[in-house]
Amino acid sequence: MPTTDFAVREKYRYQNGFNSYHESEAIEGALPVAANSPQKPPYGLYAEKLSGTAFTAPRHENQQSWLYRILPSSAHAPFESREHSTFNTNPENKPHEKIFQIPNQLRWDPFDLDETVDWVHSLHLLAGAGDPSMKSGIGMYIYAAGKDMNPNEAFYSADGDFLIVPQHGVLDIQTELGKLLVRPNEVCVIPRGIRYRVTLPEGPVRGYILELYQGHFQLPELGPIGSNCLANARDFQAPVACFEDDTESTWTLLGKFAGHLFAAQQKHTPFDVVAWHGLYYPYKYDLGRFNTIGSISYDHPDPSIFTVLTAQSDHPGTAVADFVIFPPRWLVAEDTFRPPWFHVSFSTISPSFQMATVHPPTPFQTSPI
């Protein structure tokens, strides 16, 4: 047989085959049979999923492995920066490196309400990836505003689509194409370039924004689910035409461009659209209408079944961003575990943007935020 006569003798055992499905156990009975995430894994081990591709990657590309560990891989202290001259793969002098990326799992408490600022000046960029000038990636914001925008003022973003998730208070949004009232448990998307004005009919507001620099949001593919369920197209609400006849007043138009704020003056209202038609418009969605899908036999499915909106990259099955919710639902299954299992993903272009309504089972559960 054509083999190499190595000077150092082999001392390990292996499984053979490229791109073959393998399974292995160091102790007999440690590997669950016909299940991935049993409620009580053998020997009290922790079930953990390691993803090399997105959950929604086509089956022929999907690369995932289930690991059964003594302790979760996330059971460690936070990472701290440790740059050294011998390990300099991301030099600090790159002019485009404006966001410092770290490998820790992160979340943040709500910001304090600030009654001194309006919608535009309440936006705080907390995280992101990519570059709005190149139309790639995302930005993640918190807003916390306490007063209406000025009466003759409008705002738009040239950088990306705003997915707005209210956490407290009500947003009354006047857009060029009509008006939207957005309340907690609703989400709103205002596409790139559409001008709008935000007032606060119920007082101070607070919430989250995902700005999508790359492409636009769409509904996820349903695959074997069929033609309905999850977020149904008929439940999204678009505004009706509503205009103002004002060609005398001075208006200030605020624009977000490449992450910076610009202002221009005009002698008429921007809200003068008397009629419109097309596929490019702001819209909102009541999260209470989300039709959840879950397991009815055994095992816990991937969290991608709770995707409301997705923004796909140029690689099918891999998203730039997913908006995922964990709403109240009935979930009956044998020998499994309702909260999301431990999973570590190295597959997505940008972190998923998730709104969770369930609490983690242990302080070590990992999930991209």
Automatic annotation (TrEMBL):
The keyword Metal-binding applies. Residues 13-287 form the Homogentisate 1,2-dioxygenase N-terminal domain. The keyword Metal-binding applies. Residues 289-344 form the Homogentisate 1,2-dioxygenase C-terminal domain. The active site is at 300 (proton acceptor). Its cofactor is Fe cation. One of its GO terms (cellular component) is cytoplasm. Keywords: Dioxygenase, Iron, Metal-binding, Oxidoreductase. GO terms for biological process: L-phenylalanine catabolic process; tyrosine metabolic process. Its EC number is 1.13.11.5. Fe cation binds at residue 343. GO terms for molecular function: homogentisate 1,2-dioxygenase activity; metal ion binding. Pathway: Amino-acid degradation; L-phenylalanine degradation; acetoacetate and fumarate from L-phenylalanine: step 4/6. Gene3D superfamilies: Jelly Rolls. PANTHER family: HOMOGENTISATE 1,2-DIOXYGENASE (PTHR11056). Belongs to the homogentisate dioxygenase family. This is homogentisate 1,2-dioxygenase. It comes from Aulographum hederae CBS 113979.
